[in-house]
Amino acid sequence: MDQFREIELFVHVAEHGSISKAAEILDLSTSAASRLLGGLEARLGAKLMQRTTRCLYLTEVGEEFARRCRGILSEMREAEAVASEVAIKPTGLLRVSASLSFCLLHIEPLLPEFSAKYPDITVDIVSANRYLDIIEHGVDIAIRTKTSEPDSNITIRRLAETRRVLAASPQYLKLHGVPQTPHDLNQHKLLSYNYADHPDELPFSKEGASMVIKVKPALSANDGQIVCRAALDHMGILVQPKYIIYDYLQSGKLVPVLNDWDLPRLTMNIAFQTRSHMPAKVRLFIDALVERFQTNSFEDLWTR
Fold first, then answer.
1. 156 CB-side CA count, 13 A
2. Which of the four, 128, 184, 251, 254, has the lowest number of CB atoms within 10 Å?
3. Backbone angles phi, psi at 218, to 5 degrees
4. pLDDT grade, residue 71 (50/70/90)?
5. Crossing angle of helices 60-84/280-295, nearest 10°?
């Protein structure tokens, strides 16, 4: 108990730069707080902070210790929240944002079971191919491919990685031929997603070799489903994350091309507000989504 109290106190000191402020938050006297911090440093055998008459600052060891302790405290608080919510029926509006493709392929399929299990949670799906400001739009959970957020109030949790691949219908390839090298793409009609990073460039890599192919799409769209539909209608070669076209590849409706070359991969992440106590509705939905991905081994399928 004393060790946990020491860690909790130290994190507050690190965040507020003041022993007296941290003591006030934890309802301790300043002298008691000083004794706890001294005991912590003595137990660790390390100097965690430097104090002068004017200021307090962390040592390099103290900065690293504080970073790790924040994670420990966050997990402890979440564990306490889970325990305290066991007897509480989760309720309320849960707003989830993701691209249309992700909503159709991975949000909607888990809703029947989730809604049956938690009937008092109302799920509001916001389909958006542009990233919405989570706090401004009241979003509880967002699926994003970027791995960091400029706002420290947003937490990012990795969900899965996927390859980006090129594919076309068998009919298109029969009529126009199968490209053998990335340079051959200049002789083909390309279908691209115009919200991708640098949609007019394809940076290929293979066994240490790399090249960038400039492309002028025959069709571009701001939604992956439109690009998929165009490829199924034999209009050209699409460039899409494998998770979007996996079922079409398995059925043979689309055929991969230049599959021995790699394009930069995408990492799908769950973004949500950083909170001391995660609401039950948010935690339960994240758990359901993570379980779906792990049970189906999606990352393994999408990175082959």
1. 14
2. 251
3. -80, -25
4. confident
5. 100
Structural domains in the chain, CATH included, are 2-84 (1.10.10.10), 92-159+267-302 (3.40.190.10), 164-264 (3.40.190.290)
> Quick one: tokens of 61?
């060891």
- Residue 212 has phi, psi (to 5 degrees) of -115, 125
The residues pairing with 57 across neighbouring beta strands, listed in sequence order, are 50
Number of other CB atoms surrounding residue 230 within 10 Å: 19
d(CA 58, CA 66): 9
Query: By the 8 A CB rule, do 245 and 165 touch?
Result: yes
Give burial (CB, 10 Å; 0-12/13-18/19+) of 281. Answer: buried
Residue 21: exposed, middle, or buried by beta-carbon count in 10 A (0-12, 13-18, 19+)?
middle
Q: pLDDT tier at 87 (50, 70, 90 boundaries)?
A: very low
pLDDT given at position 81: 64
Whole-number percent of the chain with pLDDT over 70 = 93
SS3 of residue 7 by DSSP: helix
For position 273, what pLDDT does the model report? 86
Dump pLDDT digits (tens) for 173-212: 999 999 999 999 999 999 999 888 888 899 999 998 999 9
